[in-house]
Amino acid sequence: MAITLRAKWEFAAAGQALPRQQAEATFPSMTVVVNGRDDFTLENYRRVSEGGEPVTIGPRAREAMAAARADFLRLLESDRTQFIYGVTSSFGPRVKVTIPPEQQREHARGFEFRGNWARGFGGGYLDERVVRGIIFARLANFVAGNSKARPVIAERFAALLDGPLPPVPLDGEVGAGEVLPLAHVLRDFPRDGIEEGEANPVVNGSPVSAALAADAALRAAPRLDRAERVLALSAAAFGVPADAYAEELGELWGDEDEAAALAALRRHLASASPGRRQAGQVPASFLILGRVLGQAHRAVAGLTEAARVSLRSVTDNPVYVPPDAAHPLGQALSTGGFHNAMAYPALNALAAAWADLTLLIGRHVTALRADDPAAGLGSELSALAEEARAAAMPTLLPAAVNDPQDDVSSPVFGAYRREATAAECLDGALSLLAGEASRVLDAAGRKGPDPA
């Protein structure tokens, strides 16, 4: 039986292949080898998180870690009374407790990666691909020696990818850093033989933020492409004249993202029947497509950049800086690397872009149904638009009340969840618009853009 244009576009808008034409993505059986921070790319992240590939610590990384470990021990032995967080002091709220030199080795061996403080609450769990991504992102701290840890600790961490992977609560983040979700990731991490300075590199830092940003970024570009194709289909169905998306507008507006959005609309509309309406008959929701889609381009690019930077960042607290002329033994610096200030604003911006597009889609359906408004999808699309708008309310830095040490909390989990909700609303709205625009074109016997 022939498949109608409407059916083809409904599948395409949902990001699905046609029946019996859907091919499963396959990844070659390979291994990601990491020798330095430059190996922590979005592509390698995808290979590990989605492709299921293992990670091997390369020889250059093992050499760098071993050398830095020896340097750090020389720094520590030079004065075991100096302040090095988690090594000569206790952790978290007990940071003012000094660990006597003769107890520091035992203190390191006794560190607990799990317990009551690792409980999550509500909200479901992260997808397994994201848990794999967290493990990958954590290894960036190790490979150049900044973690102070021996190569065996990094290798143990990489071995967690062999599974089984533990469930990590989506709403398990209520601290200044990311110790709580990492405690879930570390459920099966072997604790035997931990030495001074090797506990914090495992549980401190902000690899969860890096993984959440990377996961959302990898899904953002395909979603934006689907949105552009479906909105071009809608413009074709309504009969928007070609000059609404003319190339000259990109130059006049002076923004490369808006120019890219206009180019995408022209590309998708190239094979469609020409527009039949005068510019004065076209609602604003069609005319502003280039500008609103341009903002979505900016948001996708912003999140992609935040993910790129975050994946290769060293975020340990404390972080070890190798020796130089001014510091012949190196330095152990207490830092705020456990807080990622790039990820959640970028996720906020993307959620807002998805919400705006969801609203535009509702206006398009109303315009396409102008001759028969009673048969429209107004209530369903209005509900999706309102849910997306609620999800797009910005997630900001939350205060932690009555906690003199961890007096702020990380907002990245909330931002990630809100972006995912807004994205789901957009996906649903795109499917409805694809079906409605295809119906209009089928009924008129007109050609629309190719959904492929």
Automatic annotation (TrEMBL):
Keyword Lyase annotated: yes
Protein name: Aromatic amino acid lyase
Molecular function terms, GO-annotated: lyase activity
Keywords: Lyase
InterPro entries: Aromatic_Lyase (IPR001106), Fumarase/histidase_N (IPR024083), L-Aspartase-like (IPR008948)
This protein's record includes keyword Lyase: yes
Membrane-spanning ranges: none
Alphabetical list of Gene3D superfamilies matching this protein: Fumarase/aspartase (N-terminal domain)
Domain of life: Bacteria
